[in-house]
Each structure stands twice: as C-alpha cells, then as structure tokens.
Amino acid sequence: MKLYYSQTSPFARKVRLAAEHLGLTGRIELVPAVTTPVAEDAGLAAATPLSKLPALVLDDGQVLFDSRVIVEYLDGLAGGGLIPPASDPARWRSLRLQATADGLLDAAVLARYEVALRPGELLWRDWLDGQMRKVTRALAALEADGAGLATGPALDAIAVACALGYLDFRFADMAWRDRAPKLAAFFAAFSEKPEMAWTDPQA
C-alpha cells in the first residue's frame, strides 16, 4: 500500500499513528506530497479527485481518501482494535470524540489557510474569527467529554492527540493548555509514545 502524506498534515498523522498501533506501518510506503487549495500536487491529484491528504492506494489499485475512511479500513485489515464493535455503546462516544477532534482540525486548517495563503489585504477577519471560535468550542467540548481518554491505542485518543498537536504546531500562542488541563495531562502522557516523535509536524 502507498500513503500520500505530508509531515505537517494532522489528518495524515492520524493515519500513520493508527497504522503504527495496528502493526501495519511496515506494509505502507510513504509518498510525500505537498498540496494546498491553490497549488495541487500532480501525483496526488491524479490519484484522488479531491487532491486532499491523506490518500491510501491499496494493493489492488483502489484509492481511499479521508482519514476516517482510511483508519476504518486499516482497523478492519488488522482485525479490529481501534474502533469499538458496532454493537458497543462505546463506539458512539469514540466516534463523537473523533468527529469533534476532526472538526476542530477542519476549522484550524481553514484558519491557517486564511492567514498563510490569502493575500494580506484580502484577509477576511470575520471568517478567521469564526473558525477560531469553532476551535475554542471544540476544545471545550473535548475537555468536558474526553476527560477519560485512554492513552492506549484507540481511535478517539489518536484523533484528539493529532488535533492538540496541530494546535501546538500552528497556534502555539493560543495556550490551549491553560483552558484544558485534563486534555493537557492526556496529551503529555500520549506524547511519550515513540511514534508521536517521528510523526511530529516539526520533526
């Protein structure tokens, strides 16, 4: 399998962490790609219609995209372990936490694009502020709902760790730990895992 990824993509990081926890890292070839909404990577655009990271090319040539889809595929390939069974009530809590973390990332990435890609004289302050309000609300929801996050291999823990790592990377001045001490404790423990170091966007 081949994974189109970027070291700075939090969604690609989620897939890489999931693959490591599932023992699949050795079966995946990493293909670096640099893409933005205004400058596509040619190889990635040829592989997936959305030209978004991450994208996983399967051994039979099929391409999966969207980190949630890829992680679910990898979980099934490995026999399960990250996602609770369909009949397990814990499944919905886990998926809700993942959706909250991914939504935080969606808003944070859009805010980053607004600052990094839009010409300064065209910066839309109301849009930027609106995205950051979503980030703040999602962080508060995770602090309230995710207090019992385990540091073991679980989908929700991986997703939340990637979201918090991205805030450290792109929004360090936000000082999110001041408003989310439980998440700060979780992230400190989760960051002890070796794979967090080699998937760090600043590595």
Report on this structure.
There is one protein chain. This protein has 203 residues and is α+β, with helices and mostly antiparallel strands. It contains 8 helices and 4 strands. A 4-stranded mixed β-sheet has the order 2-1-3-4, with helices on one face. β1, α1 and β2 form a beta-alpha-beta unit. α1 (10-21) runs antiparallel to α6 (155-170). It starts with a strand and ends in a 5-residue tail after the last helix.
In short:
With 203 residues, the protein is α+β, with helices and mostly antiparallel strands.
Classify the beta-strand content into a percent band: 5-15%
Give a count of the beta strands, DSSP E runs of length 2 or more. Answer: 4
Count of helical stretches: 8
**Distance, first to last CA:** 24 Å
* Domain tally: 2
**Major sheet characteristics:** 4 strands, mixed
What would you say the CATH architecture of the largest domain is? Up-down Bundle
Rg on CA atoms, Å: 17 Å
Taken in chain order, the helices and strands follow as EHEHEEHHHHHH
Q: Could you tell me the CATH topology label of the largest domain.
A: Glutathione S-transferase Yfyf (Class Pi), Chain A, domain 2
- The helix content, as a percent range, equals 40-55%
Mean pLDDT: 93
